[in-house]
């Protein structure tokens, strides 16, 4: 019928890809979670030039098996415990497939109204499920948006904060025109994206005040108050405080209420980065800790692409007031003008983000919530937390290991009793098995091994297997502590 | 087997979604390309809360049919001629499905080596197909990367330019510390994302020097030289020139060689934004105009998600030297450190972009090139350009219309002879038919109707139908010019 689209061929090839993926997932547990790869090893197996004439799908799928899969880290593997999860599941995969197949652009409400309205609506659904206050939903002057990542969420919050602090001056005249130096605050354990955003937005990475972390892993609110007061006294204009709910290294939770109170005294924007831990607010038993203080903040973000089994990219950012963000990011040349925008009755999400274009990402969140249901999503999170707790108990009971802090939800940080070199060595042994993958961080001044439960294929037995792998690694430690488990 | 993944269910539901999409594409031509929608009309049909228990896929597909489709603009419709195309096709849809299904993270080479290596490799393939010089490929110190959008490409180029111009000062100490004001240049017809990037990066939107456009729609290089010299004489530091190859309004092409020569005298970074038109460099007959001057530029970007039938998001950015970008954007906390990064032998693409995370976007470009082949991709572009040329001839031959400029590749800009109000009225009549969708812009001081051919389902007969729609619109114009065609 036409050059680019043959529905029957798409039906056939679509099924082949679905089957290939079903087989991949069905056999995932039989693969190593990752294998050593030499730099350049993948490229050496690929032809030097693109083909002039079409190749069959079967050839591509064969190359996926032969060249690509052996050189991937399998993030959905049951033994994947590294970083934070970047989880997905069939509802989200199907949602992404629908978005790709519809191929609509949601840059403006008018360029595909359902794309914008479903996003606003599903973000309200999710805010309600998480127990976020109504002031962060579209019922007020704010609402939610899907961005690609928590990094972008922090950047958008910073740009809005910068403009609010300078009454729109910097967007037009630039940072060099600020009457007073702008300052930004986050805990010493905040994610590196805060520093990155400061560089991007022209405030400079050195502007970041890294506030001390208390013993529980949360920002020291008294130290923040002092820093804010000292900067204000020195003629600076405190602009933004980033509070972290679930720090990357150890899952520490900043005291958001106290932070918001301190920030309010200086008119600073408060953004909460709950990228990983935020999802656990689905469960009422943890909600109080995770959404405390949200009645007095300006923005709050979490990543369903981490722990809600929505494939990357899906960062959800909620704003108490959308106006400062729109003022910072809207540009409307002639070719984007339209009656709906001018009416003021609609949201144009390109005004809430760096890129102009946007795909229909709300579909994968919509399908995840509808095909899974909130109850089952809560159940999975509870499983992960329970299994991590079991693992932490094993660590605490073994005198060859040190539990570096109490587990935070589904994250356990531990070390070898022998010190940093022994810990690094143990991590290497664990990961070399290919059965599990863990990652490293610095926690309380020590090298830590991180186990984060969150892969969609992980079951209790895999966490038990992870423990067996740790025990086996210990029993073969070069300093030769005997394996009392064996 | 586990809570989140049942391969047999995925097989079944995946096929249902593939079939639903195949049916959607097969019947796309029978739908209106867009329908009037009232703000809030979609949300009113959705329940107020997410479900607690799972719903069947069939219920979601039914809602797609009932609620979502009637409120979408169908960007892949054969009558879609608005904006620039955001085209897709089965190979890309399948590539996106694979990326979602594999669910790997390519933030670092080490977090999934094949994700990074395939991207570098396929970007070399595409650079070669486009006739870009080897200096922009990974054979030298630069290479290519996939970002979400041309807006992000411009922002990344600006950040690298800013850091190069200030020897890394601004990233650390901020824009307020610049010894001389930084200035940025683009044509008056450059995309709004240049202005947006200047606001984001703290230079300020007012820093943009909008250089006059010559009669052919390209930047006036002499005016640029003068502006650069005047700013330098006034103590400014020219930092970046954005050249546009294919302006949004009319497809104008800036003289990149002359721009690069002028910029070189001041050490300014030259970025080429070839978001839409760049894809046509696949065809040797247009290549000379489209990649001229690329032997002396710093970065060049095009969007396969516009005209190469790779679904959004897929902006390809090539750099002559990756070092300034990495210096501007790299942050490596402990939890991201790894031996491969420290060896310097690998690319960590998170250092080339704002977000940290990234999905396996190279797959959709790889599948598009392999399953389609370069020959067929060229053939489609040639068809689009030929059909647009045919349409432009009809316009030029009709004295009720004005061809505002010669067609640029597959883009035609025209107006009603009666002036701006008549043009706006004609556009409204055309789009109200639901058979086609065109968009508006300002060209040479006049309101223009834009017809951009590029949807994957468009055939010659649809462009002929678009012309019939214009003629019918003219015949019913309120000022009543008789329809000499009817």
Task: Identify the notable features of this structure and list them briefly.
homodimer; 17 helices; 42% helix; disordered C terminus; 486 residues; seven-stranded mixed beta sheet; globular; alpha/beta; Aspartate Aminotransferase, domain 2; 12% strand
- List the helices and strands of chain A in order: HHHHEHHEHEHEHEHEHEHHHHEEHEEH
Q: CA-to-CA gap between the ends of chain A?
A: 67 Å
Low-confidence stretches of chain A: 480-486
Q: Any idea of the CATH class of the domain at 104-358 in chain A?
A: Alpha Beta
Derived from helix and strand composition plus strand pairing, the structural class of chain A reads: alpha/beta
Q: How many β-strand stretches of chain A?
A: 11
Oligomer: homodimer
Principal-axes shape call of chain A: globular
Helicity of chain A, as a percent range: 40-55%
In what order do the strands lie side by side in the largest sheet of chain A?
A: 1-7-6-5-4-2-3
What average pLDDT do the residues of chain A reach?
95
